[in-house]
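Kindly review both lines to help learners:
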Amino acid sequence: MSNDPEDFTPLTAKAARVQKALSSVRGRATARNGEVTMEVSVDGRITNLSMTQWFSQLHPDVAAQLLAHTHSAALDDAQMAAADIRRELTDDYRVVRLIDKITSASPPPPPTPPPVHRNDDDYQQGSSIYDRW
C-alpha cells in the first residue's frame, strides 16, 4: 500500500467489494393476505415472484395496482439495505475528497476557432457581389 495521497488502489478495491455486495442485495415485500410476494434486486429487477391462486381472480386494475405497490415496497427494502452497504464508500474521506475535486473543477474553456488567414490580395479575388453577375 502506497502513502501517495493520489493512490486510489485501496479505494478501487473497496469500490469493487461494495459493488459485489450490492449485486447480491435483495428486497422483499408481501402484499395483502399474501396474495403476492416479490423479491427485487437493488436496481428494481424482479428476481422472484409468487402469487396465490386467488390472485388470478382479482380485477386486472386491482392486480396491476397490487403488483406495482408490492414492487415499490420491495424496492424500498432493497434500497435501505443498499444504503448501509454504500456507506462504506460514502463515509470514506478519500471518496469525499475525490467528489469535491471533481465537482469543483471548472469546465475547460470552449475551443477557439482557428484564425482566418487572409492574403492582402483577397479583395481582388471576386469578393464583391457585383463580381457574381
User: Anything to note?
Assistant: The beta strands are 26-31, 36-41, 46-51. DSSP finds three helices and three strands in the chain. The longest strand covers residues 26-31. Residues 64 and 129 are 70 Å apart (CA to CA).
